[in-house]
Specification:
3-stranded antiparallel beta sheet; alpha/beta; 9 strands; 4-stranded mixed beta sheet; 6 helices
Length: 212
């Protein structure tokens, strides 16, 4: 499901043709992106996890993450141990004159502050949860897996129907979105429920009594 397919799916939910003067490609692109960004805020989804390298500057303790950053998972010096995350007041308590290889960090004011202040140029590995990119071109695809993209369609349909003041159908679409969200949260863990090989027990084995 790319942007073009998502727009088409929303039109199908709404029951409007491609020539509809209200739900144009531009309007539907806005609704699809709004729905996708709403979905991204519901959970720290595994498909939004990513990493970036941050080069330290000698004598500088505070760094700004990438533009897509939403939440930090962890921070480490490349090929080193994880930095321990602490509250900002704990860093405030420590001597500002401390320099060396960072061992602690905090997140405050949309920035990462490390301690001690780097005394050499190092690479920090920042693992974080990012935001979804805006879909612009017809072939653009969201980060959310294909099997869950119907959730975007349901919420975009809810937004469209609410805009049209069709409250009854809007609530149906919102309920559909909630059902998808519940299923997505259930399947967020990337550990399989079985030891592999498909079903743990074949359905026939469960249904058929043991031979005597």
């Amino acid at each position: 499901m790319d942007l073009a397919t998502l727009r088409s799916a929303v039109r199908t939910r709404l029951g409007v043709p491609a020539s509809d003067p209200i739900f144009t490609d531009g309007a539907l692109t806005e609704l699809v992106n709004s729905a996708n960004h709403y979905l991204e805020t519901e959970w720290d989804w595994p498909w939004l996890e990513t990493t970036e390298d941050i080069a330290t500057v000698i004598g500088t303790a505070t760094y700004t993450p990438g533009a897509t950053w939403m939440r930090t998972i962890d921070l480490r010096v490349a090929n080193g141990a994880l930095l321990r995350r602490v509250p900002i007041d704990e860093l405030d308590f420590l001597s500002s004159a401390g320099t060396g290889e960072p061992r602690l960090f905090c997140v405050t004011g949309g920035q990462l502050t490390v301690f001690p202040t780097p005394s050499a140029v190092l690479t920090l590995k920042h693992r974080y949860v990012r935001s979804e990119p805006d879909l612009v071109n017809a072939g653009d695809t969201p980060l959310v897996p294909l099997s869950f993209r119907s959730a975007i369609v349901e919420y975009a349909s809810f937004l469209a129907l609410r805009r049209s003041r069709d409250e009854g159908r809007a609530e149906v679409a919102r309920s559909g979105y909630k059902e998808w969200l519940e299923q997505m949260v259930k399947r967020t863990a990337r550990y399989a429920d079985t030891a592999g090989g498909g079903a743990e027990y074949a359905p026939s084995a469960k249904a058929t009594p043991a031979a005597r």
